[in-house]
Structure formats: C-alpha cells, structure tokens
Amino acid sequence: MHSAIRFSIITFGTLLLVNTNYSCKKKDTTCTAVIKVVRQNGAIVSGAKVKLTSNYALGTSKPIAEDYLPATDLTDATGFATFEFKLPAILDVEVTHVAYGTGADLIKLEEGETIEKTIVITQ
Question: pTM for the whole thing?
C-alpha cells in the first residue's frame, strides 16, 4: 500500500515539475518579414533595395521607428530580403531597383511568425 502511495506522489511531483518548467519557458515572439522581389514576368530581381517603415507596433502606443525602422536591405541572388523584429507591426514595404523600377505594399507581422510577401516591381 505504501509503495502505491509513494509511486503516486513521485508521479504527481514529476508531472508538476515538468508542467512548471514548460510554463516558465519564454515564448519566441520574433516576427520575421521575408520579402521576395520579382518583375512582372515573374523573373527574380537581385540587388533591389527593400525598405520597411512604420510608425507604431501593434498592441502598443510605443513608436517603433526609433528602435529599428526604417529597415533597409538589398535582395540576394534569389530575390529575397529578410528582416527580423521584436514586435508585431503593420509595415510599409517600398522596393526600388535602378533598372527595373519600383513596387510597394503592406505587410502585417504576427508574433512569432514568418510572413512572406512578394512585391512585383514595374517601371
């Protein structure tokens, strides 16, 4: 009888310890924006300047421009530019390329998510 009680207490203690450790882990809230730039014919565009701007993070009145915006990068050989942010936000995406023109759109970043957006540039 004592062994059954001891086993139950050990099992309960183990479950409590596992549950406590699990709930103490910090959730990854990194928001990732992956911007792909293409021409109207679908051809990828490398070397395009991608600029992300915004005034406020979602769910807060804190201006985010002073923290890490505008964020600017060039597309790589596969036509992608990747950005990481700490907070969800709705961002303006502006793309320019000397030879192929410009494009623009919005992207909504979600907490802990990677969001892809394709921007078609035109002259």
Answer: 0.72
